[in-house]
Amino acid sequence: MDPLILLFALGVAARLARSDLRFPEPVYDALSIYLLLAIGLKGGVELSHQPLADMIFPAAVTVALGFAIPFVVFPALQHLVRLTRADAASVAAHYGSVSVVTFAIASAYLERRGIGVESFMPVLLALMEAPGIIAGVLLARAGGLGGAPVLREVMVNKGVVLLAGGIAVGFVVGSEGYASLKPLFSDLFRGVLALYLLELGLVVGGRFADLRRAGWRLVVFGVVSPAIFGVTGMLCGTWLLGFSPGGAVLFGVLLASASYIAAPAAMRMAVPEANPALGISASLAVTFPFNVFINIPLLTLLGSTL
């Protein structure tokens, strides 16, 4: 069993047992900044070795899918989960955007098993952050978006800034410039990710009460949605984009993940009438554990058969 997964489970168990284990807020922020920047830098360095033309089509497909997913899940959230228009749009935005931590866990999982991926995958991660949130706002407003402030909020969100900025810096400095940063941003990555997952387990353990109030339909959605989009993304990565097996799995994880950082902040600003607990509880307390414990291993297994 991967120690990363066990530490996440330890955090959940500690919170459910009402332990006084807590991470100070500045430490949590520092860990998240480190992870975002480390992923961006590594992706930028790898990208510097690749022709940019190779990623134009994958980038376009990624943006299109990120924008389309909220429109796909919105009717189900309204009619099957029985959410209001505002709540359905808010939750849909969470599922159209991405989880950087899920991406990091999947990357570490594949690397641990010696499965290679395309070097530009962190770029696709950064590109998929915003389109789903914008689509969610459009759904909430039924096309009447007056959202320049919201768009700006999405684009200057720390996740987008650190990922995109890290990719740009890594691309410019290349392998030689990155060598001096490698001991911090590469060698220590799994250790920092382990601490972050311990803290995230504590957060997830505290969200189960919100989930009970949200109802079983949202729980089912939080499992079925990533299962469907994970397989869809993997097949799309294999047959449409021509990715390697590892790249196809990671692309499936991108589509299967749901945001619990950028989307909640943006949707609180854009759709204040929506209940913020619904989206973050579904994405963090249902979809994130499902992806970590079940979906990533299953997609990896399926990817090895294609």
Describe this structure in words.
The chain has one domain: Na+/H+ antiporter like fold. The protein has helices at residues 3-16, 25-47, 56-79, 85-96, 100-112, 121-127, 131-141, 148-155, 158-178, 182-185, 189-205, 208-214, 216-240, 245-256, 262-270, 276-303. It is mainly α. It contains 16 helices and no strands.
CA-based gyration radius: 18 Å
Helix content class: over 70%
CATH topology description: Na+/H+ antiporter like fold
Q: Which geometry do the CA atoms define? A: globular
User: Which class best fits the helix and strand makeup?
Assistant: mainly alpha
Mean pLDDT value: 88
**SSE string, helices as H and strands as E:** HHHHHHHHHHHHHHHH
How many H/I helices?
A: 16
- CATH structural class: Mainly Alpha
Number of strands: 0
CATH architecture: Up-down Bundle
The biggest sheet amounts to: none
Strand content: under 5%
Give the total of domains: 1
State the separation between the terminal residues, measured CA to CA: 25 Å
Question: In terms of per-residue confidence, which ranges show pLDDT below 50 for 5 or more consecutive residues?
Answer: none
Supply database-style keywords:
mainly alpha; 77% helix
